[in-house]
Amino acid sequence: MFFGGIAVLFTAYWLIRELRGLLLMLLVSLFLAFALEPAVNFLARRGWRRGLAAGLVFFLLVVAIVGFVAAMSVLVVDQVSSFADDADSYGNQIEQYADDWFNADIDMDEVVDDLTDKDGPLREFAANNAADIATAVVGGVFQAFTVALFTFYLVADGPRLRRTICSLLRPERQRDVLRAWELAIDKTGGYIYSRALLAGLSALATWVALTIIGVPYALALALWVGVISQFVPVVGTYIAGALPVAIAALNDPVDVIWTLAFIILYQQVENYLFAPRITAQTMELHPAVAFGSVIAGAAILGPVGAVLALPAAAVGQAFISTYIQRHEVVASELTSETRRKRRPLLQVIRAWRANRTAGRSGADAPAD
To answer: What is the model's pLDDT at position 8?
Structure first.
């Protein structure tokens, strides 16, 4: 039995290593199914056929993704074309900057000629890596199609899949599985929809602000800020804000100040006004737990794990909390939260005036 157990462990390890890509796609599909199922259930309760409801939700999701990619593609193409048209002026600025700050003599025309030469590094890189690039593109498309297919069947045949799983378990185990499944759907769906709402508010505010400031491609930049800032954990806010600032710098250096000021101001409004109210019932995670979950997910599964870490942590926390019995905490200095009593501003001003008046009276009183 001992050597048989070792053989089983090595076989399982070999299978997981060989099927890692497929298992990762199944995991992503499962979380996407959790996120989309509330909308499908909403339509199914109103008389829609489940397959048709799943198809409509998928269609809306694809339209949103295609619209975002199209907007960003237009932005990238226009910026590359603009950079190519102004390449000479940028080259002169680089030459002047290198001469003023580093006392270096750089000929940008020679650098460009070396890079674009038929035997230059750019053409050599493209020739040597063309097959790898094409393979990566085809592989990415295939993986996206596979994830979409798995997700559609998990959502459309959700009740049948749950019945099949529960039929193999005892009744008490079936209740545990269904409770865990329901928690996963509620937490993951709540996370996705709350983030989508925050992304919409962020995109709308950014679009209005960039339009007023005069930054070009305001709509595309607003979509970028809304999506990246909400769906990329931890560093999404900084990545999202960097692009509008860069575009503003290319347009007018003064716009950088206004754009940066708006981004900082809106983040404060979102953190203290919008986010607590929208996510109060969906993602009840301590900030330290959320940050640690993102780091752990990135270490285990890379960028995909970082994105899935927050809903996974929320599901795990909610599931564990249903089985943990909590007790009353004994009184101690280590567990008490000493809070200073807050006084209204008017009372503070009155107390300050009273102390100041008392001080003057003591100073004017005659000495004994």
So the answer is: 93
Angle at the Cα of 82 from the Cα atoms of 76 and 86, rounded to 5 degrees = 145
Three-state SS string over 157-207 comes to: CHHHHHHHHHCCCCHHHHHHHHHHHHHHHHHHHHHHHHHHHHHHHHHHHHH
107-112, long-range: CB < 8 A, 24+ apart:
112/87
Residue 204 tokens read as 């709308």
| Whether 37 contacts 187, CB under 8 Å | no
Position 345 scores a pLDDT of 53
* Amino acid at site 63: V
Q: Work out the mean pLDDT of the chain and round it to a whole number.
A: 80
Q: pLDDT per residue over 174-221, tens digit each? A: 888 888 888 888 888 888 888 888 899 999 999 999 999 988 888 888
Residue 210 vs residue 354, higher pLDDT: 210
**Contact (CB, 8 A) for 227 and 197:** no
- Which tokens in the block code for residue 206? 């950014």
Residues 46-64: b if buried by 16+ CB within 10 A, e if exposed: eebebeebbbebbeebeee
Question: Is residue 120 helix, strand or coil?
Answer: coil
Instruction: Read off the pLDDT band of 307 (50, 70, 90).
Output: confident
Top pLDDT among 343 and 300 is at 300
Report the 10 Å Cβ neighbour count for 215: 25
Domain coordinates of the chain in residue numbers?
A: 185-321
Residue 228 token pair: 């990246």
Quick one: tokens of 279?
Answer: 């996510």
